[in-house]
Amino acid sequence: MYFLFVCWWCGTDCVVWGRPVVSWWTQNYRVEPFECWWCGSDNTIPDPPWTEAD
């Protein structure tokens, strides 16, 4: 599933892949820190809930 994050440096929307981590009671996603496609700055992931990208 893809999630939408905003770069802390330039404010650009970045779509990041969340890898499914499945357990028997719920489905969660693991999202790694990402590099902004526009400015190249490293971004950390905020705590959930996250906005799903369309």
**Could you state the order of secondary-structure elements as H and E?**
EEEEEEE
Low-pLDDT segments, ≥5 res:
none
Mean model confidence by pLDDT: 93
- The beta-strand count equals 7
Query: What Rg is obtained from the alpha carbons, in whole angstroms?
Result: 12 Å
SSE diagram, text form:
Layout: E1 2-6, E2 13-17, E3 19-22, E4 27-30, E5 34-35, E6 42-43, E7 51-52
Antiparallel strand pairs: 1-2, 1-7, 3-4, 5-6
Describe the structure.
The strands form three sheets. The protein has a three-stranded antiparallel sheet, with no helix packed on it. The chain has one domain (2-52). The protein is mainly β and 54 residues long. The mean pLDDT is 93. It has no helices and seven strands.
Name the features.
54 residues; mainly beta; 3-stranded antiparallel β-sheet; two-stranded antiparallel ribbon
